[in-house]
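Please check both lines for our workbook:

___
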Amino acid sequence: MKHINKIFLLLFITLSLAPLSAHDLKGAVASDDRTPKNMLRDQFRNPVETLSFFGIESDMVVIELSPGGGWYTEILANYIHYPGTLIAAHWSKDSEVAYFRRGRANFEKKMSENPMYGRVEIVDLNSSMADANSVDAVLTFRNLHNWLGPNMDSIFENTFKALKPGGIFGIVEHRAKPGTSMEMMKKSGYVTEEHALEIAKKHGFELVATSEVNANPKDTANHPRGVWTLPPNYRLKDQDRDKYTEIGESDRMTLLLKKPTQS
């Protein structure tokens, strides 16, 4: 009987520890649940290093702003587990823009097809996104250029409200050269660090640190079709494709901001 009890105890411990190793960040990045095509981008997007820099833990409540097709969602959904929750703030399903409606529908379809997305909540990007002071971290990857103008102010304001005091706001964005005009930022898809930090500070955020983990010195940020000239978009198709393949994905700023701790 004692022998049987020991076996059951060992089995219980083994099963209890299994989820811990399954939700390790490196394990989430290497998971077979990820799309093989997406994994090819890891060399440019450095997910382990980036999420580690942002201090993302598996039990956090995290909002991902504008998740697009879910490149980072695949990783975060595999990593975040109870009591943590992943909130995906996507374009509205009722948007007047057909591209946004299709993107939301495709994202919802992806979320419904795999049980690993069970702790993903989907909300509208133009909403409050979460209760005030309830979120540990908000992340966005390569989206600021889509929000330039009043929309960026609204999203940053709602992000600040949703975060807990001391909560973090992690930003990765295509980096424009200092002095780039607003018109050129909108046209090229590259945003200056100065502008990103100006809007962040305007809405109450403090800069904690910057990282060069997603930097690419080969990228001049000056291409015929803007950032979309480079992989993975290749807007010029086969024209100078080898040249742009050699450059790789864009040079990116990586900013760690926080909502100040209230006294």
